[in-house]
Automatic annotation (TrEMBL):
It is found in: Endomembrane system; Membrane. This is NADH-quinone oxidoreductase subunit M. Belongs to the complex I subunit 4 family. It is a multi-pass membrane protein. It comes from the Bacteria. It comes from Actinomadura napierensis. The chain crosses the membrane at residues 75-94, 101-119, 125-145, 157-177, 197-215, 235-256, 268-289, 296-317, 337-354, 374-392, 412-435. The lineage of its organism: Bacteria, Bacillati, Actinomycetota, Actinomycetes, Streptosporangiales. Pfam families: Proton_antipo_M. Residues 121-419 form the NADH:quinone oxidoreductase/Mrp antiporter transmembrane domain. InterPro entries: NADH_Q_OxRdtase_chainM/4, NADH_UbQ_OxRdtase, ND/Mrp_TM. PANTHER family: NADH-UBIQUINONE OXIDOREDUCTASE CHAIN 4 (PTHR43507:SF1). Keywords: Membrane, Transmembrane, Transmembrane helix.
């Protein structure tokens, strides 16, 4: 069943060239919705049970003990579902796409298979294959359908993230060579962590993995590829890049770095705390200075991903309170889901502005609530969710992160957690500034061109915001799924 879910979009992409042009958008939408329905049914059938479900393990490259090994657990279930939701939303949003529609749909279906495969992979080599393919797919999305200086932005994105993947591969080779017997199987590497008796080599391996995943996340100082890539990518591309692909980095920290290198993670927990804190504050402050709506949202992604790294760093303090550390990991995974929904919606909302006016310049808008009340309402809800207003998913995630980090019982975690709270204050200021200037301010030169949201835009964005509200009001289903995984990761790091 899981292999069907992963490869169904790719299978349809292969036959899409013979589908009549008028049916291409509807075929794209149908397959993404069908894939989402399959994933939801699998989640419902599995419930919140522990362990790996829907596992498949087939020999692939026996000489290095690499296999086609996939499965779903409390970490991958939410992210696979998030992936399906965002790809379905982008398919609906893009129904009015007119430029190279067939190629656009094929590339997004390819990317969906790649992203689903990565979050399902239980083999390092398989993980790496999907990791690299995601870079190739997004490069072509930016360079072929982007705007502005799209060629330069796509090249910078590719070179940065491809370099990160090469460094990541070095880390994976270190794990492989340190395992006895040598293997790329994640389950085996988690059960018997490699390099346990070699702190120096374990530290170097963690450094390689940390840099590779840190570029993908991205954290400061490896974030500079992100703003131009987002600014010049099409709206659907930005939504997938921020909502899904950035999670590959933080997912890798929880799935690979923490359980496979627990001693090294504990030893360098302070480094991750500091990197997370710097990303939180830097991302929020730079976003506050932006007049380009897309760059603003891009820098808030640096801020929000910093919260995740901060929480995972706090979880590395084995001397801290176990319950608090477990809460921090749960909050980190919840933040991955919340950020995907909210930022995906924000980038699609930015896309609506650009479709109407050809500009992201916030200084040229004002008073759009008069001409686009529904659009303005969605923008306000997405902004409040991003700044962590209670009743929305951002609050649930950030409350757990701060409670777990500050309550861990260690001075370093408590101090960095307390300082990171300033990031929420700055985020609130920047989004209120946007709402004041663009939605409620005096009319701008482009305000008259901003018509209200159309039906495809509503059908794409409203479900994302509704899920954010649902998680904010009734998070139990999500948390019940994540918490067994959080307990397992915390126990592995603390052993």
């Amino acid at each position: 069943m899981l292999s069907l879910v992963v490869f169904l979009p790719l299978a349809v992409a292969l036959v899409l060239p013979v589908v009549p042009r008028r049916a291409v958008p509807w075929t794209w939408i149908a397959v993404t919705v069908a894939d989402l329905a399959l994933i939801v049914s699998m989640w419902v059938a599995h419930g919140a049970g522990p362990g790996v479900a829907y596992e498949a393990d087939v020999r692939w490259i026996p000489s290095v003990r690499a296999g086609y090994h996939v499965g779903l657990d409390g970490l991958s279930f939410p992210l696979v579902t998030l992936t399906a939701v965002l790809f379905a939303a982008c398919a609906v949003y893009s129904i009015r796409q007119r430029h190279r529609v067939r190629a656009f749909a094929i590339l997004f279906l390819f990317l969906e298979t790649v992203c689903l495969g990565l979050f399902s992979a239980l083999d390092l080599l398989l993980f790496f294959v999907f990791f690299d393919l995601s870079i190739v797919g997004m490069y072509f999305v930016i360079v072929l359908w982007g705007h502005g200086d799209r060629a330069a932005s796509a090249l910078k994105f590719f070179l940065y993230t491809f370099l990160g993947s090469l460094v990541l591969l070095l880390g994976f080779i270190g794990l492989y060579l340190g395992a006895d017997p040598h293997t790329f199987d994640m389950v085996e590497l988690t059960r018997n962590p490699p390099l346990a008796g070699s702190p120096g080599l374990a530290g170097l391996t963690l450094l390689a993995i940390g840099i590779g995943l840190g570029i993908k996340t991205p954290v400061v100082p490896f974030h500079t590829w992100l703003p131009p890539a987002h600014t010049d990518a099409p709206a659907a591309g930005s939504a997938i890049l921020a909502g899904v692909m950035l999670k590959m980095g933080t997912y890798g920290f929880v799935r690979i770095a923490m359980p496979m290198l627990p001693d090294a993670w504990r030893r360098y927990a302070l480094v991750f705390l500091i990197v997370g804190l710097v990303s939180v504050l830097y991302g929020a402050l730079v976003a506050l200075a932006q007049d380009n709506a897309k760059r603003l949202v891009a820098y808030t992604s640096v801020n929000h991903m910093g919260y995740i790294v901060l929480a995972l760093g706090a979880a590395g303090y084995a001397s801290g309170d176990v319950d608090a550390r477990r809460l921090a990991v749960t909050g980190a995974v919840t933040q991955m889901v919340s950020h995907g929904l909210i930022t995906g919606a924000l980038f699609l909302l930015c896309g609506v502005l650009y479709d109407r006016t050809g500009s992201y310049d916030l200084g040229r808008f004002g008073g759009i609530a008069r001409t686009a009340p529904v659009y303005s309402g969605m923008l306000a809800l997405a902004a409040f969710a991003s700044l962590g207003l209670p009743g929305l998913s951002g609050f649930v995630a950030e409350f757990q992160i701060f409670a777990g980090t500050i309550g861990s019982g260690t001075t370093a975690a408590a101090v960095t957690g307390a300082l990171a709270v300033l990031g929420i204050l700055v985020t609130a200021a920047l989004f209120l500034r946007v709402l004041h200037r663009a939605v409620l301010g005096a009319p701008g030169e482009l305000s008259g061109q901003v018509g209200d949201a159309r039906r495809p835009e509503l059908a794409a964005i409203v479900p994302l915001l509704a899920l954010s509200v649902l998680i904010g009001v009734a998070p139990r289903v999500l948390l019940d799924t994540i918490e067994p995984l959080s307990a397992a990761v915390t126990a592995l790091v603390g052993r």
